[in-house]
Every structure is written in structure tokens, then in C-alpha cells.
Amino acid sequence: MSEPAATLRSERDLLGELAVPADDLTGIHARRAAVFDLAGRPVHPALIRGIAVVKRAAARAARHAGTLDERRCQAIDEAASEVASGRWDHLVTCDAWQGGAGTALHMAINELIANRACQLLGGRPGDRQLCDPHEHVNRHQSTNDVVPTALRIAAIHGVRRLEEAVTRLQEACQDRERAFADIVCLGRTEMMDAVLITMGRRIGAWADAFGRDRWRLSKCEERLRVVNLGGTAVGTGIGAPRAYIFRAVEELRALTGLPLARAENLMDGTANADALAEVAGIIGALAANLIKVADDLRLLASGPDGGIGELVLPAWLEGSSLMPGKINPVIPEAVVQAGLAWLADQQTIVHACARGSLELNPYLPLIADRLLHGCDALARACRALAERCLAGLAVDRAACARHAAAITAEATALAARLGHQQAGELAQAARASGQRVRELAIARGLIDAEAFAALTAPAAVLRLGQEHAP
Predict the structure, then answer these.
(1) Could you read off the pLDDT of 202-239 as tens digits, one per residue?
(2) Number of domains in the chain
(3) 320 an active-site residue?
(4) 432: domain range?
């Protein structure tokens, strides 16, 4: 049964007319956007809020240029501020993947802000004389400068949150590095016994890797802070007065507190998205480190009876519906999945950046979706690894000591004193007899127990280089 005519308003666009509930803050453009349903989820909230803050800056810049009156500017500013706060997120239902470079989303937000501004001005939604989505909210703007600018604002915040999570992960590694500094264990290369190290130094290497990720992420902001607001359709600023163009980014910088800068070449900033591909690659290095460390944790905790079993991971879930007592490394496994998902996202972003055509990239909605959700997922993965794995990580000292007695490791420890040839002969003899290299070396008078202990102490195995040549 249709609604009574009194409860509806009629809206018109280039394609015709539609009836909309009279007091609905959404309108004809939001309904047109329903043609997109590929992703099956709405756009990331950070992109909505990024567009809203761009609208605030644009209104203020237009007021400064003398092309938007004070009363409308204040209403648009207040309405856009509400959208930027997340108050109206539930009304922006545009699908994350859409054609048109984000025009459907942009216009849906324009009309949401316009309709709310109408209310703030004492009227009802849809009163285009009071506030019009095109003429007032979108004055001197285009989807082609609004959406890229909003995406960069959202991405800066996303990368900052990710950097904070990586910092916490680095600190968690450093804490375990200190806790396990005195535990000598077996180092391995190509999955084979190698030389003696300490568990603390091994985890310290993880901390250093995440430290590099932290530094790289901090540099992303330099790539993201350059925006093309003021360029309008293709970067020439068509339809916008110079006073507006030179003011818009200044207003945006004041509203966001971010060190934003207008692109020197607005056509470049509109046509090319390579900065986003670069950022995706930087985040890809973090994903690679997360996968590597998570897999190391799984391997070192493997068994525990039939595997390496040197690390003991916190237990979160029963590991099997069939095998009693089995506990799986569920947090590292989840983290690996987050890392792999980002590597796929990275490829999607790079390909989407590459497929920009002439003066515009029409695939920014996909780039935004993968970049913003990917940053969120990796930040959660970093926090999970820090808080639910490393914070409760323990060492099986007996397993470490047992593996540290490996023939290759003990022979290598003696090589600096006895020479490669003699140490190799000891290793062969140990394998043939089933004895330890240590026992054979002492029995043959090549070293005493005290000297061997000194060679294999934590300080000795971590010493950079040898004090004496053989």
C-alpha cells in the first residue's frame, strides 16, 4: 500500500522525478545510488566523515570568496559537522564499490547535508530555495577533487592508528627480548641447526623489523597530505574563483589539524593515484613482517612434544573436537590471514591506481575500500599479536637447553678456537658415537668444561665477532 501523498515530497534530477518521504534527510541521489550493490556493504565511515569535513572547509572558503552567504554557510557547516561526527552514518548506505569515481556517494552526502541544513534554517528537507545540494553544498567543487581529498584525510587517520598499533607491537617484542635475554637457544638457517643465539636476541630482531615498519608508516603522511581540493573537475579549477581555490585547503587544514597542502599541479593530483599505490606498498612491508613473525611463533611453538616446542603460546581455544589436550596457535594463524589479505588488497590498490584514465581515476571507491578496511584489519592484527600472544609468551627452558646441545651448534661454537677442520671432525665423531661435541672435546683435552661454558654463555653467543683468531 502506497503512502499518503501528504507524507511525500517530489524530487527531480536529470533522469526524472522520484517521491521521497517528506521529512527524510536522504533524497533522490541516495535512491539512485542503490543501483550499486556489488560489495554488499556501505562505504567505510572514515570516507563519509572525510567528505563531510571537506564540505565544511569548502563552505567556509566560499563564504570567504563572497559566493556563499553567512547564514547558509553556518547551516552547511553545522550540518556537515554532524555528518563528520558519525551521527548520520546510518543514512549513508551507498555500496562501497561504485562507478562514477564516487559521484553517487558524493551526491548522497551533498543532499544529506543540504536537507539537514534546511532543518537548521527553519525549513523542511527538500526545500531547495533554502539549501540546494548542487548550488550551495557543492559550490565550487567536483567529485573529482572532493573524494580524493577526503580519501587522503581518511587514510592519514587510518595509517596513524596503524602506526600506533605497530608501536605497541614493537614494545611487546622489546619486553619479551628483555625477559628472555639470558636464554641460550639454537639458531636455525634453512630450517636446519645452525649456531647458538639467545631467545631474547631472536625476538629483538622482530622488534627491529617492526621498528622499521613504524618509521616507514610515519613517512606515509608525506605522500597523503598533498590534496587536490580546488582543482574541481580535472585540476584546472574550472567553476571556482581564485579566492576560493587559495582558501579551501587552508580552511581544511584548520578544521582537521592535519598538515595538508594543495598540490602544486592540481591536474596531476586529480589524474594520478600513484601516491596511494606507494602507501599500499609501504603497508605491504608490514604485512610481510607480520606473516614472517607469526609463522616463526607457530614454528617455535610447534609440537610441543613432537616439534620444536621452545615457545609456549597463550592458550585461547581448545584445538580440536577430536584430539584431547590439543591447543593450536590461533592468534598467529589469524594474524597470517590478516597479512595475506593485505597483500591481496595491495595488488588490488596498485591495479586500480594503474587503471586511471586520462584526467581521472574512476576506481577510487575500490581503492578507498581496500585501503581503509585493510589498515583497520592490520591494526587489529598488530594489537592481537601484541596483547594476546606476545604479552603472555613463555619459554620452555628445558627444550631450549636440549636443542642448544645440537652437534652443529656446539661444533660451530668451538670452531673459532679449534679451527674449522678440527671442529668438523668432532661433529662427525659425535654423530657416529651418539655423544655430544662438548663431551668429546673435553675428553680429548681440547677444552675444559669451564672454557666451553664460557664459549656458550649468553654474552659469548651474542658477541659481535671473535676476540681472537683461531
Answers:
(1) 999 999 999 999 999 999 999 999 999 999 999 999 99
(2) 3
(3) yes
(4) 405-462
